[in-house]
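Second attempt. The first submission of TauD/TfdA-like domain-containing protein had a stray character pasted in from the spreadsheet, which I only caught after the job came back as garbage. Lesson logged: always re-copy from the clean sequence file. Corrected sequence (203 aa) follows.
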Amino acid sequence: MYDLDPPLVTSLLAVQVPKGWRQICRYDDETNTTLDVPLGTTAFFSGYRLYELLSEEEKHFVLTSKVEYAPHPYIWMSKAKSRSNGLGIVSEGLELSEDELPPFEDDKIKIYPMTWMNPVTGRLGMMVYPTCVRKIHLEDGSILDNMSEIRERLYRPQRRAINPEYVYTHDWEEGDLVLFNNHGVMHSIVGSFKDGVEVRLFR
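This time the job returned cleanly.
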């Protein structure tokens, strides 16, 4: 998200994973949504399905806007709290200021479209990492930099795509190798572990 572009494909290789346990994942929002998942699972959702779920107004917004990611984004957001459902972070003003970050160069800051076209199928997908976004460049040339508004404008549409019927949770076995399109699929670890009991190791 800074200096280097994300890869087109991400790979996850399960080296050591817990076996046999399941958990109830609670979204902890106003919907009271729950999802039964294997312990240590990775959840995936489709940016293509997400785009199809958008209203026409939302489609116009994501087709004509670009996101700017923070320099050293994971350091920038290191003090912030994640949303309980894993989709972005809570706006509490805890992001580091530019003065608190390691040195960075403006020309290495990444600005990307909010939608990507699959070169094989031609389908459009919305693909934005909401945790790392610090600005949205709008169609008229203005820049949205209010973090609460940025996160709300990204969260509202993305939240639809994590409804249980749209989420795939992989039940890992040791040796499993998963490859996925980084321009069309979002992923997140789900659940929690007891200290010193379960181990989850990936390469």
